[in-house]
Design goal:
By secondary structure, the protein is of the alpha/beta class. It has helices at residues 3-15, 48-56, 70-79, 83-86, 101-107, 157-171, 221-225, 230-233, 249-284, 316-319, 346-353, 368-371, 440-456, 463-468, and strands at 23-29, 58-60, 63-64, 111-116, 129-132, 143-146, 149-152, 178-183, 291-297, 323-326, 335-337, 341-342, 382-387, 399-404, 407-412, 417-422. The structure holds calcium ion.
Length: 483
């Protein structure tokens, strides 16, 4: 056993508050964009059960991920570390010998479990019980790996994940707090609905997003290179059959969008129903009063935004994720928290809410002060992002950048191309201002800020030097740099 793990129960005793530690139900879905939840103002669907979490607790209106793709985001959830620190930058195998939030909570006495999507290739560690989908898993009659043993279950994946999650809660030792990750597969590609929702939206057209016809004209070449366009790259498997032969141009694109978005939203609806089952279980067993409920997605998603499906790019539709937290006695009902929060914050938050110390290697911050309604004056005002997977499935150029409340700077380092967006004037990120002379000072400052943030999170690989090549002539803004 690792030395840190041996020490941890002692640390727990030292820091443990008099109140009983809370249970945790963490629902971590796959590719669910925040603009497909009604509590986030969705114009295209309704999520009544997810909205229950927002109503009883807090909705974070500026939650972002540090690498918008499945496997890396899951490694970050477990470790509280950026991809370059936990070793999972693309779809590589997670080194399960690392400290994780599950191990820390398990060592402190929690009964820990994970059901559903895992997607970290190595077997889960730090869990007393696990039943995971192999890889991406299947929507219908899926196989699970339960504690190392494969089993095939009959039914729809979202129902089966909720069934096993409820069984975990039923069978848990009742004298210990629990940590349960109940991780949906939905609404990941290729968006296969269940029979119950197969005809939802049959009689209506789903509206297209405002950036549906983005032509990428002001962007770097990276956008045009990506192979994730609604009109060009949704295939017959995605649309569940070939298009009518008489369609072309805008009409064909609209047809493909309808086929994609309706199935996507049907999968969301099935997931939302099962979130309701879990919430009902907690309610019926008097567990709501001492269970922290968290809902988040591993990344956002382009729902036709910029003529895309999928994620990866640092633009807001995939950078932003839904994050709902109901923490009894801590979060305020129906509250909205505007501060910039990241997926590196999830693990520290769980440990802090459990009354445990946040281990020094973790790179995120506990969200507990924000849940209490506080506004810490030193809260982060910029975030660092980095994407690695190229050519991958969709030829999205690797890039890194920073986002503040008002600006976004992106560097596609393989092709030495920059983009800069003024989010106050251009929230849809349609006008790349990198060559606008009026923005020269703002861009130079943003480049300096990018260096600071890159160093702050200790991302110091070979591309750091490539990045330093552009001349930087202005004084960096005042910034506290961590050692
Ligand atoms: Ca995902």
């Amino acid at each position: 056993m690792k030395a840190w793990l041996l020490l941890f129960p002692l640390l727990f005793l030292a820091h443990h508050s008099p109140a009983a530690p809370p249970n945790f139900l963490f629902i971590f879905s796959d590719d669910h964009a925040s603009h497909a939840l009604s509590c986030y103002g969705s114009k295209i669907n309704s999520t009544p059960n997810l909205d229950r979490i927002a109503t009883s607790g807090a909705r974070f209106s500026n939650a972002f991920v540090t690498n918008s793709i499945c496997t890396p985001s899951r490694a970050t959830l477990m470790t509280g570390l950026y991809s370059h620190r936990n070793g999972v930058t693309v779809f590589n195998r997670f080194d399960g010998s690392q400290p994780t939030v599950a191990k820390y909570l398990q060592a402190a006495g929690y009964y820990t479990g994970i059901v559903g999507k895992w997607h970290l290739e190595s077997d889960p560690t730090g869990f007393d019980y696990w039943s995971i989908l192999p890889g991406q898993g299947r929507y219908h009659n899926p196989e699970f790996i339960e504690m190392g043993k494969r089993k095939t279950l009959t039914g729809y994946v979202e129902d089966l994940i909720a069934d096993q999650s409820i069984a975990f809660l039923e069978n848990r030792p009742k004298d210990r707090p629990f940590l349960l990750f109940s991780n949906p597969k939905a609404p990941h590609r290729n968006w296969e609905p269940d029979a119950k929702h197969a005809h939802l939206y049959d009689d209506i057209d789903i509206p297209t997003p405002p950036t549906f016809n983005d032509d990428y004209s002001s962007r770097s070449p990276a956008a045009a290179e990506a192979t994730m366009r609604i009109d060009l790259h949704l295939n017959a498997s995605d649309t569940k059959g070939p298009p009518p032969p008489n369609l072309s141009g805008a009409a064909l694109k609209f047809w493909k969008y309808q086929r994609f978005i309706k199935d996507y939203l049907r999968c969301v609806a099935a997931m939302d129903d099962n979130v309701g089952r879990l919430l009902d279980y907690l309610k019926d067993h008097d567990l709501l009063k001492n269970t922290v409920i968290i809902y988040a997605s591993d990344n956002g998603f382009y729902l036709g935004d910029h003529n895309w499906f999928d994620k990866r790019f640092m633009y807001d539709p995939s950078l932003r994720v839904p994050l709902l937290i109901s923490a009894p006695g801590i979060s305020k009902p129906n509250s909205v928290i505007p501060q910039m929060v990241l997926n590196v914050d999830f693990a520290p938050t769980l440990l802090d809410l459990a009354g445990l110390p946040v281990p020094p290697q973790m790179q995120g911050k506990s969200l507990a002060p924000l849940l209490r309604g506080q506004s810490p004056p030193d809260w982060r005002s910029a975030m660092y992002y980095r994407y690695y997977h190229y050519p991958g499935d969709h030829r999205v150029q690797p890039h890194y950048g920073i986002r503040t409340a008002t600006e976004k700077l992106i560097f596609f380092h393989h092709i030495n191309a920059w983009e800069f967006y003024d989010l106050t004037q251009d929230p849809d990120e349609l006008h790349n201002l990198i060559n606008d002379p009026a923005q020269a000072t703002a861009i130079a400052n943003a480049k300096n800020r990018l260096i600071l943030e890159k160093n702050r999170v200790q991302d110091t690989d070979q591309f750091a030097e490539a990045f330093r090549n552009p001349p930087i002539t202005t004084t960096p803004p005042p910034e506290k740099v961590l050692p």
